[in-house]
Write a structure and sequence with these properties.
The structure holds two protein chains of two kinds.
Chain A: H1 4-8, H2 11-16, H3 21-33, H4 35-63, H5 67-121, H6 141-172, H7 176-182, H8 185-204, H9 208-226, H10 233-245, H11 248-260
Chain B: H1 2-11, H2 13-21, H3 25-47, H4 50-67, H5 77-106, H6 109-116, H7 126-135, H8 139-150, H9 155-162, H10 166-187
Classes of the chains: A mainly alpha, B mainly alpha.
């Protein structure tokens, strides 16, 4: 029939009684005279019939279940699991808490350390703040003095040693020419410049003996630099007399020893 | 009237969910009582084993409790819960299939015929055949079919439940039956 398509989708609803009465009646009239739609409905009935079989089996299965007991069992089980989970969560939190005292101790130690460091090294405690030369770095005055002294000692020693070599060479020179060869103007000038730089340090730190000796050596070098590049026999002899007369080499050795043992 | 309202409130899933969110055990038990049979119908129709179906009911409620805070007031609670149950069943079926495949891989070829009898339609009772075919339906058709045949809801109630029109329910149901007919015919070699 041409209009079967109009009915086809509703055969299931018809069988289940889900249509309104007019539509139900119209469907019944069509069914009575349409073999094709009867076949369609029979196939639907077969599927639904199997469902009914299943439903009856399901009904039997469900009748055997103690639903009240299941209700309690499910609830208890869910809440027990929830409690064990929250207990596990608490245990994890407590585990973290084991670290907390150690962490607190560490932080407290750091803070205390910082506090005592501040007390010991705070700028007000430094009698002469090491803001010398407009330096923004504040250092304890004693520390700066010790550094200055060590530097002055080292540089004085260096100056004395080089002066000593020069004087020794002067004393050991076999001729004025040989003496002139190593007593170059440059070498003497360098020693004089070094002495000028050393003067500031010797004045600031208490190196009185060393200062006096260095002054004497300086005087000698000043005389030496005024000599002509080609030294005469007389000049060489005169220089040797000064060195020996003033016992410069001996004094240098003594001061060096004192400087090396830091007893200056 | 007041008593009626109070009782209605006690059975209202929205009311119970709000209490469960605050850790109310009694409200949870009440909700279990309201929905356990509905969920069993779904799980049993999907897995066909009583004990498995009961385990899945329990798993559904456990999942519900875990996800209770994701439920938004005004949402269709029944549909939300059935979706949870259906997903749990599908996970279970997938796991079972994987396990079966694994055990079949370990079997010798001569034992495969024996193992395959589990899947042989001839070993199913008539009701179980349709139940197994229902699992293969598209989600919406399956939902309409189960709600109508296993939970015995009328078209109007299904429409309300799934928030679709009655016409759509009718159409989905018809399509589901036609598809089942085809699936059964395939399974029984044209018998259905």
């Amino acid at each position: 029939m041409k209009n079967c398509r109009y009915y086809r989708q509703d055969w299931l609803a018809y069988w289940l009684g889900e249509l309104d009465s007019n539509r139900q009646k119209m469907m019944a009239e069509h069914l009575a005279r349409c073999q094709r739609c009867q076949n369609e409905l029979n196939e639907i009935k077969d599927v639904i019939g199997r469902t009914e079989d299943w439903k009856s089996e399901l009904g039997k299965t469900m009748a055997d279940i103690d639903w009240d007991r299941l209700q309690v069992a499910i609830t208890d089980n869910v809440f027990r699991q929830k409690e064990s989970q929250s207990a596990a969560g608490t245990a994890a939190t407590l585990k973290h808490r084991h670290w907390q005292p150690a962490l607190a101790g560490l932080v407290a130690g750091l803070l205390l350390g910082m506090f005592f460091s501040y007390l010991l090294l705070r700028p007000e405690r430094w009698p002469e703040s090491a803001s010398r030369g407009n330096s923004k770095v504040n250092l304890p005055a004693g520390f700066v003095q010790r550094v200055d002294l060590a530097l002055a000692q080292r540089e004085t020693l260096d100056y004395l040693e080089r002066s000593q070599y020069l004087l020794l060479e002067l004393l050991q020179a076999k001729s004025p020419d040989e003496a002139s060869a190593f007593l170059t103007q440059d070498r003497i000038q360098k020693l004089l410049t070094e002495k000028k730089y050393l003067n500031n340090q010797l004045e600031e730190v208490k190196l009185a003996k060393a200062k006096m000796l260095c002054d004497q050596i300086e005087m000698l070098f000043l005389e030496l630099i005024q000599l002509s590049p080609e030294m005469s026999e007389t000049e060489l002899r005169s220089l040797r007399e000064i060195i020996e007369g003033r016992q410069l080499l001996l004094k240098i050795n003594l001061v060096k020893k004192e400087l090396q043992t830091s007893e200056v | 009237m007041e008593l009626e309202n109070a009782d209605h409130g006690q059975s209202d899933p929205e009311f119970l969910v709000a209490k469960i969110k605050n850790g109310d055990k009694e409200a949870f038990m009440k909700l279990v009582g309201l929905y356990q049979q509905k969920i069993f119908v779904l799980t049993y129709s999907m897995v066909h084993e009583r004990e498995d179906a009961l385990d899945l009911v329990q798993e559904t409620f456990l999942r519900l409790y875990e996800k209770i805070n994701t439920y938004r007031s005004g949402e269709n609670f029944n549909a939300w819960l059935m979706k949870i149950a259906r997903n749990i069943c599908l996970d279970f079926i997938r796991r079972q299939k994987a396990r079966k495949k694994e055990s079949l891989d370990q079997l010798s070829p001569e034992r495969l015929d024996l193992a395959d009898t589990d899947q042989d339609p001839a070993h199913f009772n008539p009701g179980e055949l349709i139940s197994r075919a229902v699992v293969g339906l598209p989600a919406k058709q399956q939902a309409v079919f189960i709600l109508h045949h296993y939970q015995e809801l009328k078209y109007e109630e299904i429409a309300k439940e799934l928030k679709i029109s009655i016409g759509t329910v009718k159409s989905l149901h018809y399509k589901a039956v036609r598809k089942l007919r085809k699936l059964l015919a395939r399974q029984l070699g044209g018998e259905a």
